[in-house]
Amino acid sequence: MAFEDTFKALSDPVRRRILTLLKGGMMSAGDIASNFDMTGATVSYHLSVLKKADLIYEKKEKNFIYYGLNMTVVEEMMLWLSDLKGDSTDDKQE
Amino acid sequence: MAFEDTFKALSDPVRRRILTLLKGGMMSAGDIASNFDMTGATVSYHLSVLKKADLIYEKKEKNFIYYGLNMTVVEEMMLWLSDLKGDSTDDKQE
DNA sequence: CACCTATTTAGAAATCTATCTAAATAGTAT
DNA sequence: ATACTATTTAGATAGATTTCTAAATAGGTG
User: Fold this and answer.
1) Is the separation of the CB atoms in A3 and A80 below 8 Å?
2) CATH number of the CATH domain containing A30
3) What range does the domain containing A49 cover?
4) What is the Cα–Cα distance from B53 to B67, expressed in whole angstroms?
5) Would you say residue B46 lies in a domain?
6) Which of A46, A87, A92, B63 is 20 to 30 A from A2 in CA distance terms?
7) Reported pTM
8) What does pLDDT average to in each consecutive run of 10 residues of chain B (94 residues)?
């Protein structure tokens, strides 16, 4: 939802790994969870954090929920870093 | 020190604001602290987190400690995000 | 309908984080 | 040496985060 949330979301290694997994295309919650050594409930929690940060979106189909990467927010993140570096391509933020 | 630490360091708004302040050039711990409504000890804690993440470096002079931005790590961060977007300019990480 | 599968929600415990106050360090200057 | 200034370290605490187990939802299927 906010800039703040995006940075928070990216601060956890599990969540970054989820994003990396999604680079390969949409995946169901279960498929994502099978990549980790933790309960589905925990992975579901991480997915909710990523969703709140708008880093992923979901699409329900049958009784599966598929998740996909949302690039828009990643670009905003890069703009912030770019601005920090001094590339005054775009304006300040936060 | 590690990639992990950098993301963690960036996840706090106070620390991001410190980095933004340092965009304008090096500043002493005291000058940085005067920009916040919190004790010097707390700001010192945040500086230590940024330092551990290699996002800033320090330089002692007289009995002041000056802090400056370290761009190298910011670039690594951008590479990670860039890679997530699919720009396979450089290799994977973590 | 009764059941099975996929996923989330709720509640609790353990760990981590941000903040404060008080004390320690260290360099300057008198 | 004593005192002053700048900053950090230590110890404590309130609040946030991650993880688990158990239960709730919700959509298919026999």
Assistant:
1) yes
2) 1.10.10.10
3) 3-85
4) 14
5) yes
6) A87
7) 0.90
8) 89 97 96 97 98 96 94 92 78 46
